Amino acid sequence: MPRAETNPSHDGVVETVMVKEKSMQKLRRNVLLAGLSALALTSVPDLAWAQDADAGADIQEQEQDAQSAIYTAANIRDEAITIVATGKNDRVAAQGQSVTVIGDEELSRVQAADILPVLERAPGVTVSRNGPIGGFSAVRIRGSEAEQVLVLIDGVRVNDPSSPGGGFDFSNALAGNISKIELLRGSNSVVWGSQAVGGVIAISTGGQGDTINLRGEYGSFDTLNLSGSIARDIGPVSLGISGGYYQTDGYSSFAGGTEADGFDQAYVNARASLDITDGLTAEIRGRYADGRSEIDGFPAPLFAFADTAEFQDTEQWSGYAGLAYTGDNFSLRGGYSISDIDRANFNLAFGSDPGFFSEGRTERAELKGNWDVTDQLAFTFGAESEDSEFTTGPFGASGETGIDSAYGLISFGGNRLNLSAGARVDDHEQFGTEVILGANGSFEIADEWRIKASYGEGFKAPTLFQLLSNFGNTALNPEKSRSYDIGIEHGFRQSGLYASLTAFQRDTRNQIDFVSCFGVTDPICTDRPFGTYDNVAKARARGFEAELGADVSARFRASAAYSYIDTENLSAGSANLGNVLARRPKHALTLSADWNSRESRDGFNIGADMRLVSDSFDNAANTVALDGYALVTLRASVPFGDMFEAYGRIENLFDADYQTVANFSTAGRAGTVGVRMRF
Q1: Contacts of residue 41, Cβ cutoff 8 Å, sequence gap at least 6
Q2: What angle do CA 596, 599, 603 make, to 5 degrees?
Q3: Is 26 strand, coil or helix?
Q4: From CA 401, how far away is CA 387, in angstroms rounded?
Q5: Burial of 578 (0-12, 13-18, 19+ CB in 10 A)
Q6: Terminal Cα-to-Cα distance of the chain (whole angstroms)
């Protein structure tokens, strides 16, 4: 491969000689923001903080009245809480945006080892994976790019700045210790900033209150999956730790291969909070994961995809520390977070040194607040400063960038009408200032019937990899989107009769995609023989989502989530004009049913899930087809007393042969048995 450009200078990409000056500017900026946070938290005696639930671990610690009571996913009410809509605790039913919350009870019932089957229970979600668990796993929302989805784990942004598109690899999010998942579908960069073009996924880990949870299972491909969590409240201190270990022999990533590609990962999450004084709380959270994925590659002399003995080591850690003050009608919190990920690829046939490595790091200071101006009117605001850097090698590149932001959101909450509108200003080091708008609302037209609508804008700057790597293109422009949806909804998910129908559209300008340069003479491919990145002038995704769930009887519940997603490349003059976007099936349907031996639904449970996905294309040229498929999972669980449960599942019951990425294998029929203990 050609050597990377180490000193590009296009549209403000800062010269290497300015790195020291930039670093000092960033240091001053972060110190100033942290100082403002500390000053505000200590100088306002009667502030009130409606705590963000971004860690998903401290909600129950707040003193809440009847209107903010929180129910588990097994008992959803109007007061069920989400953070992905506004960045603070808000009722799901009051949001005009499309939000799905999946709680601990549903996660336990599904029994999934990884997060992808869980996310597929929400409409608008499609997934793909390069081979077995441990291979790169992508989640697309309403036809977005996988890299356009912002991911938070325990409140910390974990998107990888050293990856090509700056996305998150969901193979690094096993489901063993996840307690809650919140999914927002649609652009929401007003609150969440860059990367929230397609949507936001917030993952919370660990248990709540004084609990101990243990889980162990064994299954096909010699798979061992262990996880557990413990949570304790000791006076003014709240502590929690969770973690696990996953190991599998796997199967060949290459669809025509015979060599099994295994995966193992150990991970741990920890949190602690301390009530310093009445209303003032200090909190700290951390996450660490270390894993190895065996992969297949392109060996000489044919350089065609085949079995190889290659593997990738991935080490990632993240942390957050902050203060929050709670009073009567005003809330404020300030904190600092770090996310770091290191990846290295090895092929021992060529020695012990990595053939490729990447290192990405993001540091972020933030200040968030909420002022309840009246009983019905609230003002949510924030200021953020983010710095990211990456390095690739051994013959790669390195670079760094930063973005400063401020936003405000005004919300009105009445008995039947809820409205929110806001704006954000982003100041990016390379791409200047961008103003982002958003608004949404809901209106209860009858008992439990709501009309919902939203408008959101998205902004995502090119990643450092897309600009500066061996495949980089310094002429790239930022991605921008406009997202609209409108729908009607009845009831509450996972409880009673629930029905929802939503139509949506998202128009994206300058969407960034990889361009192959094999046999191409276009000037964009100069010195880029293996390919580069370019802007797709315009892309559109539109369609509708439908959900239906019902308690057929006191012991039996059935549900369905369907998505129709029509995507199109609208770039005039492009060879791909009119083509559908890659790996975006038009139709996706998840059917679920559960029967329990007790009306209280805490007895023997048997359930089934069916996932149906239509045909799609693997590439932008629409020349490589991916056939549709149907997968069935059968599961059952048996409780023994209040603390012990045995369970098992059969995945891909009918042994369907399918692919979500061309030439990459998927699992055939597989079985798992496990036990779960709760104290």
Answers
A1: 47, 280, 323, 324, 325, 332, 333, 334
A2: 45
A3: helix
A4: 6
A5: exposed
A6: 56
β pairing state of 149-153 and 199-205 = parallel
- DSSP-derived secondary structure for 310-346: EEEEEEEEEEEEEEEEE-SSEEEEEEEEEEEEEEEEE
Overall average pLDDT of the 445-456 stretch: 94
Q: How far apart are CA 343 and CA 311, in angstroms?
A: 10
Alpha-carbon span 231 to 214, nearest angstrom: 12
How many CA within 13 A on the CB side of residue 382? 27
CA proximity to 613, closest of 594, 597, 626, 623: 626
Determine which of 384-393, 523-532, 584-593 has the lowest per-residue pLDDT on average: 523-532
> Which amino acid appears at position 607 of this protein?
G
How far is it, in rounded angstroms, from Cα 323 to Cα 334? 6
- Contact present, 319 and 44 (Cβ < 8 Å): no
Instruction: Provide the pLDDT confidence category of residue 28 given band limits of 50, 70 and 90.
Output: very low
Instruction: Give the containing element (helix H, strand E) for 274.
Output: strand 261-277
CA distances from 489 to 403, 427, 560, 572 (A): 37, 37, 14, 38
Amino acid identity of residue 628, one-letter, is: G
Dist. CA 481–CA 200, nearest whole Å: 15
In 207-240, which positions are buried (b, 16+ CB within 10 angstroms) versus exposed (e)? Answer: bbeeeebbbbbebbbebebbbbbbbeeeeeebeb
pLDDT at 518: 74
* CB of 376 closer than 8 Å to CB of 414: yes
Q: Are strands 81-82 and 670-678 parallel, antiparallel or unpaired?
A: unpaired
For residue 126 the two structure tokens come to 């499609």
Q: pLDDT class for 397, splitting at 50, 70, 90?
A: confident
Q: Are 458 and 539 in contact (CB under 8 A)?
A: no
- Compute the distance between CA of residue 111 and CA of residue 445 in angstroms, rounded to an integer: 37
- Determine the residue type at 361: R
623-654 pLDDT tens trace: 999 999 999 999 999 999 989 999 999 999 99
Taking a C-beta distance cutoff of 8 angstroms, is the pair 119, 110 a contact? no
CB atoms within 10 A of CB 81: 20
Per-residue DSSP letter, 440: E
Read off φ and ψ for residue 594, nearest 5 degrees.
-140, 130
Task: Render pLDDT for 263-286 as a digit per residue (tens, 0 to 9).
Answer: 999 999 999 999 999 899 999 999
Q: Which helix (H) or strand (E) element contains residue 497?
A: strand 495-515
Q: What are phi and psi of 108, to 5 degrees?
A: -65, -40
∠ CA 342-140-58 to the nearest 5 degrees?
Answer: 65
Lowest-confidence range among 191-195, 324-328, 406-410, 543-547? Answer: 191-195
Confidence of residue 37 (pLDDT cuts 50, 70, 90): very low
| pTM, to two decimals | 0.87
pLDDT at residue 89, as a whole number: 77
Q: Which helix (H) or strand (E) holds 20?
A: helix 19-43
Torsions phi, psi of 20, nearest 5?
-65, -45
